[in-house]
Amino acid sequence: MQLVGKKYLIILDDVSNFHETLESGSSYDEEMGELIRSRLPKGCGGTVIVTSRDEEVGKQMVGEENLHKLVPLSDKVIWLIFKDSVQKDGTELPTGLETLKYDIVNKCGGLPLATKMLGEIMNKNLRASVNTQQGMQQPTC
């Protein structure tokens, strides 16, 4: 790796059971663990960002002193992200969806990516439903 003297940004997203993977004996896992622990140059402006839902995984990878705990987003912000994802291409929110607001926000747990994905799934399902209904309404020969 030619990172000595260069700035770098490495992001390991949603890491889980990293310590178990390192202990499994797989040569790829051992090489990756060794790279992360000791081979990346230090003091050159490089950064490694690790995200995990498991605090213990984070502690083992970067040490407790380097942990930054993120606070889940508020229900209001989560609802806005969800609605924006559903309506991204002009798709109308179904009537009555507001009554499910609490359940939707609760399921997302303050996580923006989960919220966006749920909204995009609903958008896709709504568009498919509209297309199906339009196909049924067209006269046939």
Automatic annotation (TrEMBL):
Q: Which GO terms describe its molecular function?
A: ADP binding
The UniProt keywords, alphabetically, are: Leucine-rich repeat, Plant defense
Q: Which InterPro entries does the UniProt entry name for this protein?
A: Apaf_helical, NB-ARC, P-loop_NTPase
Which domain of life, per UniProt? Eukaryota
| Pfam families associated with the record | NB-ARC
Give the range the annotation lists for the signal sequence.
none
Using the record's annotation, list all stretches that form the NB-ARC domain: 3-88
Q: Which GO terms describe its biological process?
A: defense response
Sorted alphabetically, which PANTHER family does this protein's record hold? PLANT BROAD-SPECTRUM MILDEW RESISTANCE PROTEIN RPW8, TIR-NBS TYPE DISEASE RESISTANCE PROTEIN-RELATED
Q: What is this protein called?
A: NB-ARC domain-containing protein
